[in-house]
Amino acid sequence: MDEQPQIPLQAESTAPSSEPGQSAPEHAVDEGMSRETRALLYGAAGWLLPGMGHVLQRMWGRAIVVFLAVGILACAGAAMKGNVFTRDGSDAFDTLGFAADLGTGGFYAVARTMEPDGSDVSHADGDYGTRLLATAGVLNLLAALHAYEAARGRKA
Amino acid sequence: MSDLPSLQLTHFQAFLLFSVVISVAFGFLGRRRPKDRIRYILWTLILFLVIGIGIGWAMLPFSR
Asked: How far lies A25's CA from each of A13, A15, A88, in Å?
């Protein structure tokens, strides 16, 4: 893809006004909360509820897409009887799977609720569902990181 | 909740679902202008499909 010119964050976010392409001074961001702290909160909010990190910065389009993407993948994975890993994993792969699944934030609980009888990975569908669930988690972590970086003024 | 019907997709349907959702998410996160987003979404979707199907074909001799 062609290199696209970077557009400053301030055009879409609620960050205080500053010159395009420059980060706002630390003292100008907020009276009671530093930019770094706020960015961390946005990132954590985006992890817990997919898209929330962008909602707080009024990036509505991104918020909706992240929420729908993570939700569709997580719900489809659970509906396909994918394996929703727990912290009681027996090996490193289970632990990695749990970390990925936990990345979906609130949808982890939804996925667990959708599978009261447990997973069924004896068929290809269940195996695909496991991958979709992990993908949803990693995608949400990526989106949360994007929200964090956007709040720091590093990414448009 | 135990009455939820299980979703059954073919290999290609699951692959297509993954590709479309991830492409759209990447497009919105990675680009800002609508035109750029559409181009990026289409580009990543095509790459997903071509590379995925290509790898599938490459594995065909080993699947028997």
From this structure: 16, 11, 46
- Per-residue pLDDT 10s for chain B (64 aa) are 555 667 888 889 999 999 999 999 999 999 999 999 999 999 999 999 999 999 999 998 887 7
Kindly state whether B6 is in contact with chain A, defined as any CB-CB distance less than 8 angstroms. yes
Alpha helices in A1-103 (DSSP H): 26-29, 35-48, 52-55, 60-79, 92-102
pTM, 2 dp: 0.80
B45 contacts in chain A (CB < 8 Å):
none
Q: How far is CA B26 from the centre of its chain?
A: 11
How many independent structural domains does chain B possess?
1
